[in-house]
Every structure is written in structure tokens, then in C-alpha cells.
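Input record, target 12 of the design panel.
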């Protein structure tokens, strides 16, 4: 896909973005990306979005738990996005795709599809049968991606703490 917008152009001679596991020294940069993207889309902490999570500044500890993993996208030496998987409490065999956010510099380059694929593979290896997510209608690009990847709308499952996310989706894996 060609994109002439210089804000998300990855030049052909640059090092390509990489997907790698989250490390503790990535915590601050990842939290900054999540806060920046949330502000861009009007997802404020007072409304129950993940930007309000108390664990936002220590995500490497959160995703160190059994059945959980978080990956970051690194581009030109900087963390520019990421996504994670964790068990959905009270729902055996179901994991949740969590905190998928991307800085403008990386959007439109296929990285969301790639990192979601990484999350799905991990979930399969962990023995999950379904992947659940919650999102909001203002994240139009994300919603379109989830639908393209085979997620379908469903009832809300569990208590994720993100009550402002009005859209729930699930995908058998």
C-alpha cells in the first residue's frame, strides 16, 4: 500500500520496524505512546479507557504473568506501538487482545495486522480457544482491522475495567 502522507512514511532505506517482546526499560516509552494516541482520539482517563489503568507505567510487570505477553514495535530505535494478550478472568479458554496502540509514524504500514498475528499465534500456543477485545467506535481504523481479521461483535465478557469501550468482539482461534 502506498501512502504519500509523510507523517507515516517509512523510507525504503530505513531499518524496518521490528516486533519484539516488551522489556522493563520500554515501560515509559510505551506508556507515552498510549497516552499520546489516547489524547489524539479523545480517550481521556476520566472516561474508563485503558489510558486510566493504574498499571500503565509498569506494563512489563503486568504481562509477565502466566498466559500473558506484550510486544512492542520498535522503529528507528524508538518504541512506537504495541499490543498484548492476557487471560480474560472468569472465561476459561478466552484471552483478551489488549492495549493495541500505534504512534502516527507507524500507522498504515501493516504493523497492526502483523502484531495481531503475533498475538493470535501466542494465544494458540497457550491453548486459548478464543480471543476477545473491547474497543470504541472512534477507533475507526482499529475496528475495520478487527473485522477484516475475522473478529465478530459479541456481548461484553468479564470485568475488564474499560466500561467506556462500547464495542466487544471475539474471534475463535
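The sequence produced for target 12 reads:
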Amino acid at each position: 500500500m502506498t501512502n504519500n502522507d509523510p507523517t507515516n512514511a517509512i523510507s525504503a532505506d530505513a531499518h524496518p520496524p521490528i516486533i519484539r517482546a516488551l522489556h522493563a526499560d520500554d515501560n515509559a516509552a510505551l506508556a507515552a505512546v498510549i497516552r499520546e494516541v489516547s489524547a489524539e482520539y479523545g480517550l481521556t482517563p476520566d472516561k474508563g479507557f485503558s489510558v486510566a489503568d493504574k498499571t500503565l507505567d509498569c506494563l512489563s510487570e503486568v504481562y509477565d504473568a502466566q498466559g500473558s505477553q506484550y510486544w512492542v514495535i520498535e522503529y528507528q530505535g524508538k518504541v512506537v506501538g504495541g499490543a498484548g494478550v492476557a487471560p480474560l478472568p472468569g472465561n476459561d479458554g478466552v484471552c483478551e487482545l489488549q492495549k493495541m496502540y500505534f504512534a502516527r509514524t507507524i500507522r498504515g504500514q501493516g504493523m497492526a495486522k502483523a502484531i495481531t498475528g503475533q498475538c493470535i499465534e501466542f494465544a494458540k500456543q497457550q491453548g486459548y480457544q478464543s480471543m476477545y477485545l473491547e474497543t470504541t467506535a472512534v477507533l475507526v481504523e482499529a475496528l475495520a482491522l478487527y473485522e477484516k481479521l475475522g473478529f465478530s461483535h459479541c456481548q461484553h465478557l468479564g470485568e475488564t475495567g474499560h466500561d467506556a469501550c462500547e464495542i466487544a468482539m471475539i474471534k475463535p482461534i
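Helices lie at 27-40, 59-62, 111-125, 140-148.
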